[in-house]
Design goal:
By secondary structure, this protein is of the alpha/beta class. It folds into 2 domains: 23-180, 3-Layer(aba) Sandwich (Rossmann fold); 185-309, Rossmann fold (3-Layer(aba) Sandwich). It contains 10 helices and 8 strands. The chain has helices at residues 2-22, 42-52, 75-83, 99-105, 141-158, 163-189, 206-212, 230-243, 257-268, 294-309; strands at residues 35-39, 56-60, 86-89, 110-113, 197-202, 215-220, 247-251, 274-279. Mean pLDDT is 88; it is low at 14-31. Bound molecules: zinc ion. Zinc ion (ZN) binds at residues 69, 136, 202, 204, 281-282.
């Protein structure tokens, strides 16, 4: 009797081991079918979630209100990057303090910059005397759409049996983004031509302005890693007065201090400027809210701008 039980147990153990062996392995992810993805910004996380669906488990390092230009990875973040099967980030030095970590991580897994999939002719230069590009590519939906194909291809490499699902998701998400692109074009065009000027705290919106027909002025440079100066405030105030611009905008990931200085400066020159609302620039909204998704965040920005400038 005991001997019989023993062989059943042995048989079951053999089955379990055989089962494990058959399972697809993604890096050291032996027990799960999902691909473990770690991303930097919310925009990148949302892109991967839309294409991977329930076949991916996405951990995003940078939540709402977090400024990627200044972000430094914690020990906990390194662990999350280490445990991932694949890492997606924005690139073009948006996550300027993490470049070294990405290089190190790329020794044993794919580390993919979404911006690298955008054709060079779609990129805008940083205009800071260097030869680098402006990293805020997600604000031109046509450029960001290139990321869909890149994510899809990488996920298929890790999980070829899910090719059909990833392809379907990618096609449907691309359609959603194309619709939002057209919405943004139509809405911005409803603002009178002379009022199509977007003044914000830092230069995150050049792609947005370029794609949707707004002149863009930022108080700070491309990276928030530079203090704004009095001269910048003054020249921006002069422009507001000269062009009779009614509203300026604050950003969720930047302190309001700089833009408040502009509003005050205009007041001193008897020009009334209001803060038109908060725009999401480098970070998205809270998870679970509409603004916590890329499309929702984009719509919020378009509607906020149109309501204040129209
Ligand atoms: Zn930025």
């Amino acid at each position: 009797m005991k001997k019989w039980l023993g062989s059943v147990v042995a048989f079951v153990i053999v089955l379990i081991i055989a089962g494990c062996g058959n399972e697809k392995t993604n890096g050291d992810n032996n027990n799960k079918e999902t691909i473990r993805v770690t991303t930097t910004t919310g925009q990148v996380a949302d892109l991967v979630k839309n294409i991977g669906g329930d076949k991916v488990e996405v951990v995003s390092l940078m939540g709402p209100g977090v400024d990627p230009h200044l972000y430094q990875a914690s020990q906990g973040d390194i662990k999350k990057l280490d445990q991932a099967d694949i890492i997606f980030y924005n690139g073009l030095h948006l996550e300027g303090k993490m470049d070294e970590i990405f290089e190190k991580m790329s020794e044993d897994k794919a580390v993919i910059a979404i911006a690298d999939s955008v054709p060079e002719e779609k990129l805008l230069s940083a205009d800071d005397g260097s030869e680098s590009y402006d990293p805020h590519v997600w604000f031109d939906i046509e450029a960001w759409i290139y990321g869909i194909e890149a994510v899809k291809q990488e996920l298929i490499k890790l999980s070829p049996e899910q090719e059909e699902v990833f392809t379907e998701n990618a096609t449907s998400y691309k359609k959603d983004l194309e619709e939002m692109h057209q919405y943004a074009i139509d809405q911005i065009q409803s603002i009178p031509a002379e009022s199509r000027v977007l003044v914000t705290a830092h230069d995150a919106f050049k792609y947005f302005g370029n794609a949707y027909g707004l002149e863009v002025m930022g108080l700070q440079g491309l990276s928030t890693d530079s203090e704004y100066g009095l001269k910048d405030v003054q020249s921006l105030v002069d422009t507001l007065v000269e062009r009779n611009i009614k509203a300026v905008f604050v950003e969720s990931s930047i302190s309001e201090k700089s833009i408040n200085a502009v509003v005050e400066g205009a007041k001193e020159k008897n020009h009334q400027v209001v803060i038109g609302g908060e725009l999401f620039s480098d970070a998205m909204g809270e998870e679970g809210t509409e603004e916590g998704t890329y499309i929702g965040m984009f719509k919020h920005n378009v509607d906020t701008i149109v309501n204040s400038l129209k």
